[in-house]
Design brief:
Elements lengths: L3 E3 L3 E3 L5 E3 L4 E2 L8 H7 L11 E3 L6 H4 L4 E4 L2 E3 L5 E3 L1 H12 L1
Antiparallel strand pairs: 1-4, 1-5, 2-3, 6-7, 7-8
């Protein structure tokens, strides 16, 4: 199996609820995963509808690696869903809610 790394934080309920963080290797040491699971997580065909892991040799799409909230200037921030929010703290809280 190729080596993979996590590009978006997620909880893997097929791995006992293990929390994977961006840049973690996938799967974690000692964990057994199927090729089907790898295919699911490396595509948008999963519950989150987003790419969660990439092969170490692959570059993740720019839209996946973008950090949110993005500062647009004038105290306005763009969230991952395209919404704009005023204030850094408010934007961080709103983005955290989107990621749940």
């Amino acid at each position: 199996m190729a080596e993979y790394k996590v590009i978006v934080d997620f909880t893997d309920f097929q791995d006992g609820g293990h929390v994977y963080r961006a840049d973690d290797p996938y799967p974690r040491k000692g964990a057994k995963v199927s090729e089907e699971r790898v295919a699911e997580l490396s595509s948008t065909e999963n519950k989150r509808n987003e790419v969660l892991i990439v092969a170490v040799d692959d570059e993740p799409p720019e839209s996946v690696t973008a950090e949110y909230p993005k500062h647009n200037g004038g105290g306005w921030y763009e969230l991952s869903n395209g919404e704009t929010v005023q204030g850094k703290t408010a934007a961080a809280k709103a983005e955290a809610e989107l990621q749940k």
